[in-house]
């Protein structure tokens, strides 16, 4: 549904563009230099078919596909710090301990298998649950890389949000001045093809938050929608009740992440690099 909404908006925009072209409103731009002289950078090519009628089709230049991809990435709300990250750029050698590298390599194999077989995973609604008690172990970076891959390789609608962000937006929707109703927000979270919930379980559940997350998890479970979780807790240690954890267990592959902080390791490496550069400058 989300993908269809995005495509509908693109179609409406392109229809307006075609109308402008046919009405001659763009003739004044004839003196401009276009990247694609065929569609004049609109992504739409007008052509005469064998029946003598004029039709429109996607131009071979690919502007349509790029516009569609940009809209999907914008809808996903992936943090700017993670934009453009891909799975093949996740360096498992960053971990110091051999066992950590072994775990990371195994996670990489599982993730690649999941990605390559994504259509079957989508049919089954099989997502991933990534956990490690250590903050900064690479879970979020890994999850976002998968989200970017899914959008680009399979043109699937994705939404990224932290669990705290979801709860804050639900509470904000209760404000009478809010333009986003709780019903609309929950629909968006339950209907999107792939949902990434980051830092799941860090909040202390209350009755109302328990019910909202049950509604999200259960709806996605029933309709076989893919959900990717990152958490600081193993599934059995979550404070959420069995209604939620049982459904997550049934519809996810669980990936344990190393008990090492990538952020800490990177910080230490940066300090070493800085010292080396300073010594080099003195020399």
TrEMBL record:
The keyword Lipid biosynthesis does not apply. It comes from Coprococcus eutactus. Residues 135-237 form the IstB-like ATP-binding domain. The keyword Nucleotide-binding applies. Pfam families: IstB_IS21. Keywords: ATP-binding, Nucleotide-binding. One of its GO terms (biological process) is DNA replication. SUPFAM superfamilies: P-loop containing nucleoside triphosphate hydrolases. This is IstB-like ATP-binding protein. GO terms for molecular function: ATP binding. It comes from the Bacteria.
